[in-house]
């Protein structure tokens, strides 16, 4: 208990001193009255005391929340969800009062069509100009009216180079696995991702709704199943770190951590983006129509899109940043890593998962039939 | 204070109905408001069309297609040519089978343990009971992951077996049905031990002695005397284990590596990435009804036997 | 605890005696040891990895107490743990009282709807948690809160109270089942004897019924406490912005379970063990 009091006192002292000194990375402008105004805080008179950020877990550098509070006097309360659908359910039920949410691509298009998102004021979010061209005006928010890209990533293959020294950049290594790899593969436990992988390997689009194509994909997955150790989206990084799997279907950020000994991973795990195609996902900041503090929310979004802030955030989160201006401040070694920031020709192979409407039922049935066929 | 309570007690004694009402009303009220009503919401949802974005289509469109889909998986417009109409029913049957095995294991392990505990001194008994429950005050998820580590190929258990030359190769205890069984027994054993203990503890062991005196051997005495008299505990344990296990999905998911599909996984997915709440609700109600009917039937027949004693 | 139930006339009713039959008492002890081993081995691993010097919970590389220091400065986790405890205590007490009352009522009185009510009581055990969670989410936000808003003027939000309400709702049946099992062959003659000797209803209840029921009630309470502490799904949908331990931990799994969680679990274990020792000491005083 005492430690908490001490901590609180220290924080208060920090805030007090921050109000009296310049913000570390930006020269403040001094008003005639001697007050310090940070340009990154927008119009301070309109700011609320606190905002609620509803976010994925460990998807923002905690230091940034404190920095924002120190610079602009707004407390950021964060609460977490574990899936887009939970986020949607909470919003639809009218529960919670969230100011900022971070939906993924396909969920953005759904939310827009349901009228759940507030159009953003880009006079406030001027930093939208920092976002790279690839990441804006995507099909899920074609006029870039409702969202600001936050982080993105791919669902590629993490490969243990101790088992396969130079893996082929293709889904073949998991769908026609060599004997030493059979039984040591993990795929994502998600219908769209894994059925999508099969579809792409067969030459179809990841958003294909032709039942015949999906049956083909299902047959391929059933055949592959005897060589797959697990369908896992949560501990797939642990599996490859301990060597229980040699190839893992992993998201970029998970691979970043798994291949770095400093974060509990180990050396020798490469990341492959298959040439037949690979999922790209993009998480975006948005403001729900039911948000109580819309202006402050947009100020915070703008704050996070500031180049230095975005770079600092990227370093913590481990996923590639869509913020082109932030590249100046990102560690060049990370930028040069083609597994995190792939070159343009690889970027062309990436496909967004799009909402398939009613055909989602088809995907669920295929996935259920597949699971029932391999288990039990 | 005494006079008031005596007066209330008097009032209660006179009116049987008042007493009954007083005892029942908090429970009935709570469950009615915070359980039955929400359930009715869900029942409504199971009879309407799903919305594109999860939830339901507004304005509400009544349909029984979710229920139809469960009983005939090929009734949807998206069925393939070699579709198996019993797809969902099979998954349910499989879950019931797994749940039965888990229940049997929990009873087989829990009964001797409860018996053992009830034989100890008064002080030891309470401590042992607490010791059974304490692991379950750590977080369930963390515990299951810890179990997973113990059972892994390179985990403690296999290393132990290999070192003692009891096996030649590591046992495959994970990513299959065995893993699911182990994980579920691990998770639900105390649910069996507690009610079993509550019943066994009041069993009059002198009856066993009497049976021995009359010439019965151990086994006979157990089956004809002890078991029937502790039946309420057994039945309670059975209900408390079987029912939640049928609908379990977190444990099977973790322990099987997504390879064993149970009805719980299927239902959860409808409220998640498959965004088909009506179907999820329909399956839940069907599952609830089937299990409920089975359990009540079993309970009734159990208590009939009991009264005959 | 119920080894001797003493009715006021002083007649000792024996309910416990060491059986003469050796139903392989060695086998019994062995069974107990194996089960406790099975239960506690993963716990020991848990404790071990809380001292790991890297982030991994899969490979132990060296000793360090950094996770404990991290734990004590992790306010979010502490807040979550605090919420969990409060909710567990409240829901245990309330559901145990209500569950016991309901068990007594249904055991003693036969009325027309009793069968139906009983079936209704089993529902929360049967229903998949996710269904109950979503049903409650909808109920609170679409029905209850608007009603309350029109009554008191301010719209309530989800938080600790809604979670506690939900936990009480699913705990009541568990307590009921356990107490009911205990009541099933309860010897009513004891109560009759007490009343014949002049005790009124309330005294009979207090001095005869309740002590005999205690193991069942305590068992039910223990179950309720455990269920509440460990619940994830129902809590996830009824919690609004607050966290309980399971929801906090579950959300971390996405990024990987860190030894910080192990440290917290070890601390909780230590506290529980401490409770056990305390109750041991308290019993010795009696």
Give short descriptive properties of this protein.
heterotrimer, A: 376 residues, alpha/beta, D-Maltodextrin-Binding Protein, domain 2, 2 domains, three-stranded parallel beta sheet, disordered N terminus, B: 309 residues, mainly alpha, 72% helix, disordered C terminus
Describe this structure in words.
The complex is a heterotrimer of chains A (376), B (309) and C (286). By secondary structure, chain A is of the alpha/beta class. In chain A, 36% of the residues lie in helices and 16% in strands. Chain A has two domains: 48-152 and 281-335, 3-Layer(aba) Sandwich (D-Maltodextrin-Binding Protein, domain 2), CATH 3.40.190; 154-279 and 343-374, Periplasmic binding protein-like II (D-Maltodextrin-Binding Protein, domain 2, 3-Layer(aba) Sandwich), CATH 3.40.190. Chain A has 14 helices and twelve strands. In chain A, the strands form three sheets. In chain A, strands 6, 7, 8, 9, 10, 11 and 12 form a seven-stranded mixed β-sheet that branches. A three-stranded parallel β-sheet of chain A has the order 4-3-5. In chain A, strands 1-2 form a two-stranded antiparallel sheet. In chain A, a hairpin with a 5-residue loop joins strand 1 and strand 2 (36-37). In chain A, helix 6 packs across helix 7 (211-224). Chain A starts with a helix and ends with a helix. Chain B has one domain (47-308): MetI-like fold (Orthogonal Bundle), CATH 1.10.3720. Chain B contains 14 helices and no strands. Chain B has helices spanning 2-14, 16-46, 65-71, 87-119, 122-133, 140-151, 156-163, 177-200, 206-213, 218-229, 231-246, 250-256, 263-270, 277-308. The longest helix of chain B is centred in the middle third of the chain and has 33 residues, at 87-119. Chain B is globular. Chain C has a domain at 75-255: MetI-like (MetI-like fold, Orthogonal Bundle), CATH 1.10.3720.10. Chain C has helices at residues 25-49, 66-72, 75-108, 114-126, 129-152, 160-184, 188-196, 201-230, 233-238, 245-253, 259-285; strands at 4-6, 12-14. Chain C has a two-stranded antiparallel sheet. In chain C, strand 1 (4-6) and strand 2 (12-14) form a beta hairpin. In chain C, helix 1 crosses helix 11 (259-285), helix 2 packs across helix 11 and helix 6 (160-184) packs across helix 8.
């Amino acid at each position: 208990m005492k430690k908490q009091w001490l901590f609180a006192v220290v924080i208060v002292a920090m805030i007090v001193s921050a109000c009296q000194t310049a913000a570390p990375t930006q020269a403040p402008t001094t008003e005639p009255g001697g007050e310090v105004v940070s340009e990154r805080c927008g119009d301070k008179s309109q700011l609320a005391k606190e905002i609620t950020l509803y976010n994925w877990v460990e998807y923002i550098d905690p230091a940034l929340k404190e920095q924002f509070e120190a610079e602009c006097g707004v407390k950021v309360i964060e609460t977490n969800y574990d899936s887009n659908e939970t986020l949607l359910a909470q919003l639809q039920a009218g529960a919670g009062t969230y100011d900022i949410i971070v939906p993924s691509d396909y969920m953005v298009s759904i939310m827009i069509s349901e009228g759940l998102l507030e159009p953003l004021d880009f006079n406030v979010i001027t930093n939208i100009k920092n976002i790279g061209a690839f990441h804006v005006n995507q099909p899920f928010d074609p006029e870039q009216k409702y969202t600001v890209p936050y982080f993105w990533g791919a669902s590629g293959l993490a490969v243990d180079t101790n088992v396969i020294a130079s893996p082929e950049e293709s889904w073949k290594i998991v769908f026609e696995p060599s004997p030493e790899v059979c039984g040591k593969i993990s795929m994502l436990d998600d219908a769209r991702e894994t059925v999508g992988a099969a579809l792409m390997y067969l030459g179809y689009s990841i958003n294909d709704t032709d039942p015949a194509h999906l049956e083909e994909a299902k047959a391929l997955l059933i055949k592959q199943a005897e060589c797959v150790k697990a369908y896992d989206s949560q501990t797939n990084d642990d599996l490859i770190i301990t060597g229980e799997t040699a190839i893992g279907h992993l998201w970029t950020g998970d691979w970043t951590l798994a291949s770095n000994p400093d974060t509990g991973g180990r050396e020798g795990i490469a990341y492959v983006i298959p040439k037949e195609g690979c999922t790209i996902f993009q998480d975006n900041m948005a403001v729900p129509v039911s948000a109580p503090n819309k202006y402050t929310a947009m100020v915070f979004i703008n704050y996070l899109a500031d180049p230095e802030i975005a770079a600092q955030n990227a370093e913590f989160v481990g996923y590639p940043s869509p913020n082109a201006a932030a590249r100046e401040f990102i560690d060049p070694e990370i930028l040069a890593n083609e597994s995190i920031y792939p070159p343009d020709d690889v970027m062309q192979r990436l496909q967004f998962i799009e909402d398939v409407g009613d055909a989602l039922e088809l995907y669920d049935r295929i996935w259920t039939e597949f699971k029932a066929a391999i288990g039990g | 204070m005494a006079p008031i309570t005596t007066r209330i007690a008097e009032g209660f004694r006179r009116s049987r109905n008042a007493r009954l009402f007083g005892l029942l009303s908090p429970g009935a009220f709570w469950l009615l408001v915070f359980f039955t009503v929400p359930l009715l919401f869900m029942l409504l949802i199971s009879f309407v069309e799903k919305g594109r974005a999860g939830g339901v289509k507004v304005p509400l469109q009544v349909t029984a297609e979710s229920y139809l889909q469960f009983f005939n998986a090929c009734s949807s417009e998206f069925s393939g040519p070699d579709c198996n109409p019993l797809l969902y029913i099979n998954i349910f049957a499989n879950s019931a089978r797994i749940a039965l095995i888990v229940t049997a294991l929990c009873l087989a392990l829990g009964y001797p343990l409860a018996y053992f505990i009830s034989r100890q001194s008064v002080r030891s008994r309470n401590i042992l009971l607490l010791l059974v429950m304490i692991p379950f005050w750590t977080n369930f998820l963390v515990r299951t992951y810890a179990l997973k580590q113990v059972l892994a190929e390179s985990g403690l258990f296999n290393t132990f077996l290999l070192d003692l030359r009891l096996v030649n190769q590591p046992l495959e205890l994970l990513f299959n049905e065995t893993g699911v069984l182990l994980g579920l027994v691990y998770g639900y054993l105390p649910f069996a031990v507690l009610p079993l203990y509550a019943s066994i503890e009041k069993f009059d062991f002198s009856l066993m002695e009497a049976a021995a005196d009359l010439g019965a051997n151990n086994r006979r005495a157990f089956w004809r005397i002890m078991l029937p008299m502790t039946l309420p505990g057994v039945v309670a344990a059975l209900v408390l284990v079987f029912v939640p296990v049928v609908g379990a999905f977190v444990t099977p998911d973790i322990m099987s590596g997504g390879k064993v599909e149970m009805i719980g996984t299927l239902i959860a997915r409808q409220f998640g990435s498959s965004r088909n709440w009506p179907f999820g609700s329909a399956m839940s109600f069907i599952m609830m009804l089937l299990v409920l009917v089975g359990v009540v039937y079993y309970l009734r027949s159990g208590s009939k036997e009991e009264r005959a004693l | 605890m119920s080894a001797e139930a003493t009715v006021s006339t002083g007649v000792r009713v024996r309910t416990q005696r060491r059986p003469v039959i050796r139903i392989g008492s060695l086998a019994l002890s062995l069974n107990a040891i194996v089960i406790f081993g099975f239960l506690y081995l993963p716990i020991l691993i848990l404790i071990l990895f809380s001292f790991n010097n890297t982030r991994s919970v899969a490979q132990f590389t060296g000793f360090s107490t950094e996770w404990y220091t991290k734990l004590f400065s992790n306010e979010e986790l502490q807040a979550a743990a605090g919420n969990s405890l409060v909710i567990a205590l409240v829901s245990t007490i309330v559901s145990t009282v209500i569950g016991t009352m309901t068990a007594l009522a249904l055991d003693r009185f036969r009325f027309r709807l009793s069968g139906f009510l009983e079936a209704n009581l089993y529902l929360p055990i049967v229903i998949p948690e996710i269904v109950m969670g979503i049903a409650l989410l909808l109920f609170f936000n679409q029905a209850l809160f608007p009603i309350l808003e029109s009554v008191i003027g301010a719209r309530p939000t989800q938080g600790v109270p809604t979670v506690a309400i939900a936990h009480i709702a699913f705990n009541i049946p568990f307590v009921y089942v356990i107490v009911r099992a205990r009541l099933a062959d309860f010897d009513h003659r004891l109560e009759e004897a007490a009343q014949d000797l002049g005790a009124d209803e309330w005294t009979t209840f207090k001095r005869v019924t309740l002590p005999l029921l205690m193991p069942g009630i305590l068992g039910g309470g223990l179950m309720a406490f455990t269920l509440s502490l460990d619940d994830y799904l129902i809590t996830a949908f009824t919690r609004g912005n607050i966290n309980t331990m399971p929801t906090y931990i579950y959300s971390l799994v996405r990024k990987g379970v860190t030894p910080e969680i192990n440290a917290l679990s070890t601390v909780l274990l230590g506290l529980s063990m401490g409770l056990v020792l305390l109750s041991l000491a308290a019993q010795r005083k009696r």
